[in-house]
Design a protein that fits this description.
Shape of chain A: elongated
Mean pLDDT of chain B: 81
CATH superfamily of the largest domain in chain A: Winged helix-like DNA-binding domain superfamily/Winged helix DNA-binding domain
Number of strands of chain A: 0
Oligomer: heterodimer
Radius of gyration of chain A: 19 Å
Number of helices of chain A: 10
Largest interface: A-B, 55 and 45 residues
Distance between the termini of chain A: 37 Å
Strand content of chain A: under 5%
Number of domains of chain B: 3
Largest sheet of chain B: 3 strands, antiparallel
Number of helices of chain B: 4
Radius of gyration of chain B: 47 Å
CATH topology of the largest domain in chain A: Arc Repressor Mutant, subunit A
Largest sheet of chain A: none
Low-confidence stretches of chain B: none
Number of domains of chain A: 2
Low-confidence stretches of chain A: 1-5, 199-209
Helix content of chain B: 55-70%
Strand content of chain B: 5-15%
Mean pLDDT of chain A: 80
Structural class of chain A: mainly alpha
Structural class of chain B: mainly alpha
Order of helices and strands of chain B: HHHHEEE
CATH class of the largest domain in chain A: Mainly Alpha
Number of strands of chain B: 3
């Protein structure tokens, strides 16, 4: 995924200008990333007003800490990290942050990964995402733990690389791979439930050795 | 050919382009030969696309026009608050420690004067160095009164007049 309309190079120019006190440059950065930050916050919190507040607070903090931004990571990765921390803090305040061992899935979940894929999701009828399926996806997303939802959104929607996921979430790359694997499994299993599909019987691949 | 159990955890990284070349080669080889894993890979792609479309569609309806203004207003408020805090801190520091500041200032001035008095040579009107910087007192007869004149360097003169009107003969 691109890093905004004009890329990371232009980001650096704007960031330097904003660091030097150029308010117009900072505003340009806000306008460039506001939709993606709001989108992320909305998917995390499911509340439009709260998402707008989180986005606003994200950019205020970005401005506050901009002098200390050294450019070790890209500007948008740094911004997402602030936004994600605010989302998780908001969930924590509401007592909704689930403390689960997200790096370990149960055996049933792993078994389910070996099930044949859902026809409703992978079949040709899914080409256009209809409203009902969209609702089901939102419900499935909402049912995930915050950690699983966070990594799924940052990867599937924002397209962050595994390295950037590790930076934004403050975890190791190996943990990224493991957490993303389980998040995807849970998402697929939830969708199966919502779509009313029976867990299919185990089926061996055609050429498995 | 490897078993599906080995391949399934790597299908996500394969989809995300995050596999090392060596791993990618054998995983891709397995996927080419295994219909189930091809479907699993397709499911990962379809699920990702469905999530992306769903999230983007939900946020599309939000009006973000006012957000930059709200952010910039908050930033301005924060700057003003920071400046005000600095000013208040300065004032409070001054009032809390003004005696200490005054004492330190006085000491500094006194020290400068002492250094000047010790090391700067006095000069007369003609620019010549005055050899003896010590004050000189001289009794003076002012006719109707007696007096004394204290001559200090740099043309500073202090004159005392006695109250006694009797002129000594």
């Amino acid at each position: 995924m691109s890093e905004g309309p004009n890329g990371a190079g232009d980001d650096r120019t704007l960031v330097k200008a904003a660091q030097a006190g150029d308010a117009r440059a900072f505003r340009a950065l806000v306008e460039r990333y506001q939709r993606r930050v709001v989108q992320l916050a909305l998917a995390m919190t499911k509340d439009a007003d709260e998402a707008m507040d989180i986005a606003q607070e994200t950019f205020v903090r970005v401005h506050r800490y901009l002098p200390s931004f050294k450019g070790d990571s890209s500007f948008f990765t740094w911004t997402y990290r602030i936004a994600m921390n605010l989302c998780l803090d908001a969930q924590r305040r509401k007592g909704r942050l689930e403390r689960v061992d997200v790096e370990q899935g149960d055996e049933a979940e792993i078994e389910a990964a070996m099930d044949p894929p859902s026809a409703a999701l992978a079949g040709p009828q899914r080409q256009a995402l209809n409203a009902e399926l969209r609702d089901r996806i939102e419900e499935a997303l909402a049912s995930l733990s915050d950690n699983h939802r966070a990594i799924l959104l940052l990867r599937e929607v924002e397209g962050l690389s595994y390295e950037d996921l590790a930076k934004v979430l403050g975890i190791r790359k190996g943990t990224v791979m493991s957490r993303l694997f389980h998040a995807r499994l849970k998402m697929q299993n939830k969708l199966r439930e919502y779509l009313g599909e029976e867990a299919p019987k185990r089926e061996e691949p055609e050429e498995e050795s | 050919m490897r078993r599906c159990e080995e391949v399934v955890p790597l299908l996500g990284p394969l989809h995300d382009g995050a596999l090392a070349d060596d791993d990618r080669a054998w995983v891709e080889d397995h996927v080419c030969r295994c219909a189930s894993c091809r479907e699993r890979l397709a499911l990962i792609a379809a699920s990702a696309q469905a999530v992306r479309e769903s999230v983007i569609a939900r946020a599309r309806g939000l009006d973000l026009k006012k957000l930059p203004d709200r952010v910039m207003a908050r930033v301005r408020d924060e700057r003003a608050a920071t400046a005000e805090r600095a000013a208040v801190w300065g004032r409070e520091m001054w009032w809390a420690h003004r005696r200490a500041f005054a004492a330190a200032g006085g000491l500094a001035v006194a020290a400068c004067m002492a250094v000047a008095a010790l090391f700067l040579p006095w000069r007369g009107d003609d620019g010549a160095l005055i050899a003896d910087n010590s004050p000189q007192i001289e009794e003076v007869d002012f006719g109707t009164r007696n007096g004394a004149v204290l001559q200090l360097p740099r043309q500073t003169t202090v004159i005392w007049m006695s109250d006694d009107r009797t002129v000594s003969q």
